Amino acid sequence: MPSMEPHAIHLKAGDEITLQYLGAALVLQWHNLPEKTQQELVQQAESVGGLPPVISLHDQIKALIGRAKD
Predict the structure, then answer these.
(1) pLDDT above 70 covers what percent of the chain?
(2) Over the stretch 7-41, which tens digit does the pLDDT of each residue have?
(3) End-to-end alpha-carbon separation of the chain, Å?
(4) φ and ψ at 61, to 5 degrees?
(5) What are the residue ranges spanned by the domains of the chain?
């Protein structure tokens, strides 16, 4: 199992857009990923530092993925 220790990400100008594209691609492919990989990605997202805090991140991730199924 990969390490889920907290890691910080240091963004440069313009990285936000790149992350939006990468995130959108991940959400669109979510249901093609093995369940273990899905769980690991959510765990990793919850341990990322250096980004603004998000209340109920896990719930917001689930909601976003749910909307992508429609």
Answers:
(1) 93
(2) 788 889 989 999 999 999 999 999 999 999 999 99
(3) 31
(4) -65, -50
(5) 34-46+54-70
Dig out the tokens for 34 from the structure: 């093995």
Contacts of 8 (CB under 8 A, 6+ apart): 48, 49, 50
Query: Which SS3 state, helix, strand or coil, does residue 8 take?
Result: strand
Six-digit token string for 5:
């220790």
- Residue 7 forms beta bridges with which residues? 48
Average per-residue pLDDT in the chain? 89
Question: Which amino acid is present at 1?
Answer: M
> Can you tell me the distance from the alpha carbon of 62 to that of 67, in angstroms, rounded to the nearest whole number?
9
Dihedral, CA of residue 43, residue 44, residue 46 and residue 51, to nearest 10: -170
Burial class (CB in 10 A: 0-12, 13-18, 19+), 22: exposed
